[in-house]
Specification:
The protein is α/β, with parallel strands linked by helices. It is about 45% helix and about 20% strand. The protein is built from 13 helices and 10 strands. α7 runs parallel beside α11.
Length: about 300
């Protein structure tokens, strides 16, 4: 039987990595890729395919199916989730018909609270931990723009079977996805969270892009203060992160496209709902839980979530 993989959320992350999977397995007898989408995105992909534009290439890919109807989608072996974090419960609850206890779920959200939230909905399922490093976004319904060369996907689990994890890695590698099956995945996910949480909070609060945050002394100082606060929270949780995580994170940002910004900042500018609860307020709440003071996060959370 074919391995059936659903891609829920066709934004910058789900659209890009889902697109690579669709390209690799479009004519496969072993793997079937289903895009789960609705509205303008579903219509655009059904009519013309999913377009992925990079700095020097452009391609159009087609999934086996693009649908938002659980009866049409059918039972899934794997579900890769990449919606916005505020959509987790609603989007997954709508797909209960497609998810059996054997379905493996891989969340690729910006925050770190997704696996626990998903596990509450599907307590019998293997819910992996995962994160990605990529700068990509929707430019039009059915069109993904990726900026720069950097793209990495990390995943792992302390509870899922080795055979399932190896199968996922094999599927990714065959699709030419730069993926890493990581033993200490919680620390890896938190390293990414430290990067994106501080960046999203700073860019959204100051209304500045990466280059501006780094070049304006007061902006960079705020960014570093946030890094120190979230690092302290991670240490209080007992996570074994690199000693120089703050400096390493700053270097990552310096290597990022300077004209780019966070997805939360883009959503804020577009007047859309934002992930401030998962990316900013979550740090404040964890600080309270572990008795760590986070005054700068608290100040920004009060502005972004009045």
């Amino acid at each position: 039987m074919k391995i059936r993989i659903g891609i829920l959320g066709l934004g910058g992350v789900g659209g890009y990595f889902g697109g690579l999977l669709a390209k690799a397995y479009y004519k496969s007898d072993d793997v079937e890729i289903i895009f789960i989408a609705r509205g303008a995105t579903q219509n655009a992909i059904a009519d013309s395919g999913l377009k992925i534009v990079t700095d020097d290439t452009e391609m159009i890919v087609h999934p086996k199916l693009v649908s938002n109807n659980p009866d049409e989608i059918g039972v899934l072996d794997y579900l890769i989730c990449a919606t916005k974090s505020y959509d987790i419960e609603e989007s997954l609850t709508s797909l209960k018909k497609c998810i059996t206890p054997q379905t493996v779920i891989l969340p690729l959200y910006n925050g770190v609270d997704a696996p626990e939230r998903i596990q509450k909905i599907f307590p019998q399922n293997d819910v992996l931990l995962g994160c990605v490093y990529i700068i990509s976004m929707i430019t039009l319904p059915g069109t993904i723009r990726k900026i720069g060369f950097y793209e990495k996907l990390f995943f792992g689990s302390k509870t899922a079977s080795v055979s399932k994890l190896n199968e996922v890695q094999h599927i990714f590698k065959n699709a030419k996805i730069e993926s890493y099956l990581v033993e200490n995945i919680e620390e890896t996910v938190w390293e990414k969270f430290i990067f994106i949480s501080a960046l999203a909070s700073t860019t959204s609060y100051l209304n500045q892009n990466i280059g501006e945050v780094l070049s304006i002394a007061e902006s960079k100082e705020l960014y570093v203060q946030l890094l120190n606060e979230i690092d302290a929270v991670a240490k209080a949780k007992g996570l074994k992160l690199p000693k120089e995580i703050v400096g390493q994170t700053i270097i990552k940002l310096e290597k990022s496209p300077q004209e780019a910004t966070s997805s939360m900042h883009r959503d804020l500018l577009a007047g859309k709902n934002t992930e401030a609860i998962s990316l900013t307020k979550f740090v404040v709440n964890e600080g309270i839980k572990y008795n760590v003071k986070t005054p700068f996060y608290d100040k920004i959370a009060n502005v972004l979530l009045p």
